[in-house]
Model the fold of this input.
Amino acid sequence: MIRTKRDLTKAVLLVTPSIVLVSIFVYGFILWSLRTSVSAWQGIRPDYTFVGLRNYIHLFQSTRFQIDLWNTAYFTLFFIATCIVVGFVLAFLINRNIRGEGVFRTVYLFPMALSFIVTGVVWRWMLNPTFGVNIILENLGFPSDWGWYTDPTRIGGFHVALTSLILAASWQFAGYTMAIYLAGLRSIPYEVIESARMDGATEIMIVRKVVLPMLRSITLSAVVVLGHISLKIFDLVMAMTGRGPRFATDFPGVFMFETTFTGNRYGEGAAISIVMLVMVALIIIPYLVHVFRQETHE
Done:
C-alpha cells in the first residue's frame, strides 16, 4: 500500500511540470487569443475593449479570407489524395520483396528529414518559370511556358498556382504515408492473401476487397495527420510562393501573419488564428472520439 502511494506520488510529480507548461503555453495562450479576437486591439498598444463578433464578421466579409478558405479546401483535398495514393503505391511495390528495399525506403523517407523551409526554397528554384524544369521541358520538345507558382489562371475556383505547392508538399509527405502503409501491409496475415488467391481473386480484387479494408484505420490516421498539416500550412508557402498573384497561393496562416505582425491589427489576426484552430479541431476531435469508442468497445 505504501509502495503504491509512493509510485503514485512519483508519477504525479513527473507529469506535473508538463501539465503546468501545457496549461500556460498552450491552453492559456488559446484563451488569450480568444479574448484578443473579440477586442478592438489595433496598433502596438493593447486595447481589450470588447467588440463582440465584429472582427469575425469583418473577416468573413473579406474577399481575401474567402479566397484563403477555398485555397485551403483545394490544397487539403489534393494534398491528402496525392500523399495517400502515391504512398500506398510505393508501399505496395516495396512490399513485393524487391531488391534494395532498404535503399528505396531511405530515399522515399528522406524528404521528411527536411523542413518545409528547405523544401520551399528547393521547389521554388526548380519551378522557376525562367529556369529549372522549364528548361528541361524545352530541351525535350514539350511546352516550356508554364508559369507554375506565378500563374494567375483559375479553373473554376481552383488557382493553377496551387499545383506547385501541392507537388512540393506531397513530395515531402508521400514517404510518411508509404511508411505507415508498408507497416500495415506487413501486418496483414499472409494466409488471408493466399486464401483470396485460392478462391480465384485477382491481384486487383485482393487489393480492393482485402487489403484496403484492412488498412482503413491507417488511412484514417493518415488523413487526420495530413489534414492537420495542410490546414495550418505556413512555412512552405512563405518560403516558396508567398500569397502569390491575386492571392492565388494565399492561406489563412499567411493572412494571419501579415494582419498581425505587418498590419498590427491584433484583434483581427487573433480571429483568424481562432478560425484556424476550429478548422483543425473539426478534424482532430471526431478522430479522437472514434478512437475512444473503439478502445471502449475492445
